[in-house]
Design a protein that fits this description.
Blueprint: H1 5-13, H2 16-21, E1 24-29, E2 32-38, H3 52-71, E3 92-93
Antiparallel strand pairs: 1-2, 2-3
């Protein structure tokens, strides 16, 4: 049986780096996961966009929680690829595992 939202939030809270970044799990289940990370001034690069490392962290954890929602709590991310179509803008980074741009279209699943 997959963990509940409360159990998943407890797992996130047990990660010191996630606490440092202020990450929160807003949705968790087999129908999807929403991990949100605030984009604070110290998370930005020299042009004012969220640093790619923040996006990498958010993608890694969102993928792991999405897998955990189906396979249970003992999963790890084996790998991922990010093709950034636009910089992360705004005050939060919230990637959607499995999302991609339609052919010829655009998508910014990491910006909110």
């Amino acid at each position: 049986m997959p963990p509940s939202l409360d159990q998943a939030r407890a797992a996130l809270a047990a990660q010191p780096f996630s606490r440092l970044l202020g990450a929160q799990l807003n949705r968790f289940g087999p129908d999807g996961v929403e991990l949100e990370v605030p984009v604070r001034p110290e998370h930005r690069q020299q042009h004012g966009f969220a640093h790619g490392g923040l996006l990498g962290y958010a993608a890694d954890n969102a993928l792991t929680f999405a897998a955990g929602a189906i396979a249970g709590p003992d999963v790890l991310t084996a790998g991922y690829t990010i093709n950034a179509l636009a910089p992360v803008l705004g005050d939060a980074c919230s990637p959607e595992p499995g999302s991609s741009a339609p052919a010829g279209g655009s998508s910014s699943p990491a910006a909110s």
